[in-house]
Amino acid sequence: DIQLTQSPSFLSASVGDRVTITCRASQGISSYLAWYQQKPGKAPKLLIYAASTLQSGVPSRFSGSGSGTEFTLTISSLQPEDFATYYCQQLNSPPAFGQGTKVEIK
Amino acid sequence: EVQLVESGGGLVQPGGSLRLSCAASGFTFSSYAMSWVRQAPGKGLEWVSAISGSGGSTYYADSVKGRFTISRDNSKNTLYLQMNSLRAEDTAVYYCAKPLPAVAPYYFDYWGQGTLVTVSS
User: Which of B44, B61, B114 sits opposite A87 (nearest CB)?
Assistant: First the structure.
């Protein structure tokens, strides 16, 4: 099975900061990767799919890049509503999620 | 508007059984493969199972294979997860999830609110 490792697991940032989260796959997964945002007590929300395609309605400050085994999620200017936990997900069988990256207010 | 509403969670003893339901509306249910994803308290997300739109194909995580059964009733727009031989490590919030249209079956654009399953004596 393909494993995903996110880094960092936790980051502290300020409003307006540029934030980058990395997701590494144990094997190549082409561009079959998604990013989700989850707030406490809520279901995950799809942000990015196919590694770099912005889901409808998601602010353009979110962007994704990468292919193969290394991927990044970038938030260009962190907003108060962006403090949450972020997960990457690969689509190979079986589909799997990274362990999550919690973004907290500095 | 797409809606997914899970039900059926609760407290069950180890070795017991539970059936979860997910009532879907706002889209052509039979056209979509559907999945269950769970999240243990304070932990990350784990894909559990998926079923094709017709119900003819099913897929399971190794952690639940042989114990859980996914099914669907397209006439009722409802997805099910029958969970048998439950273990403490199955304790989690269980979400049903719908994929994006016309893309890969595991990019989930809609999720239910989740239903909590607690396995404890």
Answer: B44
